[in-house]
Amino acid sequence: MTHANTDPEILTGTWTPGTDGPRALRMALGRYATGVTVVTTMGPDGPVGMTANSFTSVSLDPPLILWCPSRASARFAAFEGAAHYAVHVLASDQLALCRHFSRHGTEFAGLDLSETPEGLPALSGCVARFDCRAEACHDGGDHAILVGRVLRAAFHPGDPLLFWNGRYGDFLHHG
């Protein structure tokens, strides 16, 4: 990896498969801003949640989305085997919820919850929620690519929580 400057704000470099480690690739991927989600399901021992920023729309007809859980996660099996899951797009004021589900995927006590018709935990205050039926699971290297058929979607006003360059934030409004 070649660096013009080591300040993370202006770091430049290159990455080539087989010759460079994953850090430079991760830094390049970090230049793409993403929204932040928490995905919930019911596991064999109760509700499970996971923070994920690998989420995107796939198709409007049929209505499909995808997200990619890490195979290294202790919660991976619960999502890989889930018949249904709910993807919550976090609002800009939900950083604490993001961090909670990054660390504690089975702790739902004290959270403001409702339940989807499929019996999944539904988090309140999110800018959108997609209730999905599992449609397909594909190999994605150290992640799985889970495709979900959207059964219903709810959305509310507000700014999303964003992840960019290893940091969380929101939009700056400029008119």
Question: Features of this protein?
Answer:
13% helix, 39% strand, Pnp Oxidase, Chain A, mainly beta, 3 helices, seven-stranded antiparallel sheet
Characterization of this structure:
- There is one protein chain.
- With 175 residues, the chain is mainly beta.
- The protein has a single domain (34-162), classed as Pnp Oxidase, Chain A, CATH 2.30.110.
- The chain contains three helices and twelve strands; from the N terminus they run αβββββαβαββββββ.
- The protein has helices spanning 22-29, 76-80, 95-103, and strands at 34-35, 37-43, 46-52, 55-59, 64-67, 84-89, 113-115, 121-123, 128-140, 143-155, 162-164, 167-169.
- A seven-stranded antiparallel β-sheet has the order 3-2-6-9-10-5-4. A three-stranded antiparallel β-sheet has the order 1-11-12, with no helix packed on it. Strands 7-8 form a two-stranded antiparallel ribbon.
- The chain is globular.
- The protein starts with 21 loop residues before the first helix and ends in a 6-residue tail after the last strand.
For the secondary structure, the number of strands is 12
Q: Domains counted in the coordinates: how many?
A: 1
Helical coverage, percent range: 10-25%
Q: For the record, give the distance between the C-alpha atoms at the N and C termini, rounded to a whole number.
A: 39 Å
Structural class by SSE content: mainly beta
Keywords: Oxidoreductase
Protein name: Flavin reductase (DIM6/NTAB) family NADH-FMN oxidoreductase RutF
Family: Belongs to the non-flavoprotein flavin reductase family.
GO molecular function, one term: riboflavin reductase (NADPH) activity
